[in-house]
Model the fold of this input.
Amino acid sequence: MHVVRAPFSARAWRELAYVLTSLPVAVVVFSTLVTLIATSAGLLVTFVGVPLLAVTLLCARAFGAVERARARVLLGLDVPAPGPVRTPRGKGGPAARTVAVLKDGASWRHVLYGLVHFPWAVFSFSAGLALWSVGWGMLTYPLWSWSLPEPGTQLGDNASGEPIYVDSPPELAAFSAVGALVVLLVPWWLRALTAVDRFLVAGLLGPTRLVERVWELEEGRAVVTDAASADLRRIERDLHDGAQARLVALAMDLGLAKEKLAHDPDTAARMVDEAHGEVKLALQELRDLARGIHPAILTDRGLGPALTHLTTRCTVPTTVHTDLPHRPAPAIEAIAYFTLSELLQNISKHSNATHAHIDIWRTDDRLLLHTTDNGHGGATTTHGTGLTGLTERLHSVDGLLHIHSPHGGPTTITAELPWRE
Done:
């Protein structure tokens, strides 16, 4: 049934529309680019040729935007636009912009598309329209054959040179049957033709894999920078509201104790004793703050012992199993530690679990962190559990976060990180 419905499907008609519109669009693009390139080449001996060539490249980019839009509407192919032309930092004059356009690889790929697409558009237009017309013409031939001046369609001549006509009912039925087969073939023929167009649009009018990778790294760098700024603000706030406030109060108490030392030594001793307690609390807060920046046990003993120590502060009983042949890169080790710290905090705050388990192992060049808990589930990246930010941080270093948390539990979260020794 799918084959029978294919000629009447919206996809087949959109692909036919794409093939039919390709030729007039390609003619305009090809003629414009060839004219501009030839004119630019002829004027290169003057100062006009180089700017005109830059204008040609910008026109090619504009034509590329039209082609991407046409492919998006008619083929369902969503190709992102390449990045804008970037001038060197600190240089924004016309000469710098012209040089940047001439050195832009994406613009030259747009020109190549305009030149290559024209002959292909001629072929696909002719081949697609011819097969579509022949198929529907043969299928509907009995409906309009009466309008022909001859008694029927002449297929050729027989051995004696007499013309052969399709005019009897059996011949008409056979002729229409062949047309039906051609009509059924047309959608697949159009699909094959537009597959080449998809390849050309995606390969020449979109960003290259290298450019996409640069974009990903820039986004990752922005995420890491924002996270670092947020951590610095948190440290500053904790210092200001915690240890700093205690030390200020401690200085005031010691000052009062010093004044009372001569005439009221008992009160002064009590105040010094209270100040001693405040010193202990301030030291504990500073230790906790330092542990949040980078725990010493992680540097000294590695990920396994550091996580075992971390689980002692988790409100949910947690076991840890580590299978690492040796330690990963320090940066990856730190990211793994803070990732599991975030996951344990989520388990403590949101899961209502009674037990959790952590597995850590290496597979090829990846470090895998697997957490499970028997809580009520429902963990997602959209409910403010911190998983969204965690996903972005892992992505910034080529990491991944896989979440499986059906309602009712259990919840399993696997984080993947590059090993990077």
Summary: The chain has three domains: 2-204, 212-293, 302-418. The chain has a mean pLDDT of 78.
